[in-house]
Amino acid sequence: MLSVALDPKDAFKSFNACDICSLAKKFYSSDFSDQEMIHMEYELQHYEFDVPKDPKFHNLSTLGELCQKLVEVGKSNVYPLIDRLIRLVLTLPVSTATTERAFSAMKIIKTSLCNKMEDGFLTDYMIVYIEKEIARRFTTDMIIDDFYFMKQRRAQLKK
């Protein structure tokens, strides 16, 4: 995987500027202009001689820690394109997993029997389906209580 080229483990042992540029071009071409891609190559050259030799960046083991340290030390301003790329790499798995779960849930929920469901109801139903662990914490009485206290009702829901 190309994102390993950004990994700070073992004093940036797997750092590879060419792989990082390939990563940016292949997966994030719409996030960087052509000019920024060219500038990133120069930024990576400076980064390679600066960051791995800085004692503040020793003993980092994850990309998340690297991102935090870049901000703490102010190097996110010195290497803004690399900082942006790291943030994109960190957020991609989350956004991909969420999207995949949503499509999986929709395939299960929206069957031929439920095909005429309105968008609002489908969205609400999918959220409950995807977040099953959270939904299990709610009891019927809790839902009735919340519904009861939302506004005055003509019919009495509770005794």
UniProtKB/TrEMBL annotation:
Matching entries from SUPFAM superfamilies are given as: Ribonuclease H-like (SSF53098)
Where the record annotates domain HAT C-terminal dimerisation, the positions are 74-133
Q: Name one Pfam family in it.
A: Dimer_Tnp_hAT
**GO molecular function (one):** protein dimerization activity
What InterPro entries does the record point to?
Answer: AtLOH3-like, HATC_C_dom, RNaseH-like_sf
Sections of the chain in a coiled coil = none
Q: What is the protein name stated in its UniProt record?
A: HAT C-terminal dimerisation domain-containing protein
Supply the source organism for this entry: Cajanus cajan
